[in-house]
Amino acid sequence: MMNEEIKVQEVNEGLPRIGSPAPQFESVTTHGTIQLSDYKGSWVILFSHPADFTPVCTTEFMAFQEIYPQLRELNTELLGLSIDSVHSHIAWVRNVEEKFGVKIEFPVIADLNKDVAMKYGMIMPGESDTSTSRAVFVIDPNQVVRAIIYYPLSAGRNMDEILRLIESLQTSDEHGVATPANWRKGEKVIVPPAATQEMAEERMKEEGIECVDWYFCKKELK
Ligand code: BEZ
User: Fold this and answer.
1) Residues 216, 140, 165, 116: what is their CA dihedral angle, to the nearest 10 degrees?
2) Which of 52, 88, 92, 154 to mutate to test ligand 1, by most ligand atoms within 8 A of the CB atom?
3) Model-level pTM?
4) Can you tell me the distance from the alpha carbon of 199 to that of 114, in angstroms, rounded to the nearest whole number?
5) Which of 54, 121, 189, 203 is deepest in the core (most CB within 10 A)?
6) Are strands 76-82 and 108-110 parallel, antiparallel or unpaired?
């Protein structure tokens, strides 16, 4: 195996995957020292950005702040991160408030020693830049990783999709259903496919469920 391949393999080993426990950490943030375990019982969106005082990141921070009240109504907390000092974070969020009139209310991790970035695989070995990519980890109230999104440095993230993802995960957990492409809260959901031939027959006749065929059934949530 080439040295470069071994390096990439080592960096990727032990990275969180959907369904695995979220790696624990204790970090300095703009709101003081926090531990991931402080968030047990809440959903958490842990997101990284490449660097403070950069334009795309500034738009993302303001956009995250805009959806923060809606996220909190969904028992979801935001936790930002980059490999910058806490003083840089403080200066940047103050600047965002002064220049754009947006007060950033969620904590931002100063991951200077890259502890969290390495645990979560936020640095891309193939990128020329060693800053963190635009990663999003959705962590559930039991501190299990439930979704992971990675975006490149050049593309700002879509907040509607992040909100939609939280609503989808919470709906799935509460009702034991799945959500179709482009689903929005209030729309019909997908009923889990029948597991036996007998269930398939019954499913087609069940009231309150609309089936195109035995494996493709939707229903309204009451
Ligand atoms: C930005 O946030 O504007 C940015 C950060 C790193 C690389 C490219 C763009």
Assistant:
1) -130
2) 154
3) 0.92
4) 51
5) 121
6) parallel
- Measured in Å, residue 49 CA sits from the centre of ligand 1 at 8
Structure tokens at 58: 């500034």
pLDDT in tens, 10-55: 445 568 999 999 999 999 999 999 999 999 999 999 999 999 999 9
Distance CA 96, CA 58 (A): 7
Q: Which of 221, 219, 166, 222 is nearest to 190 (CA)?
A: 219
Angle at 19 between CA 218 and CA 140, to 5 degrees: 80
Distance 65 CA to ligand 1 centre (A): 18
Angle at the Cα of 92 from the Cα atoms of 88 and 96, rounded to 5 degrees: 175
Q: Which atom of ligand 1 is nearest to the CA of 58?
A: 2
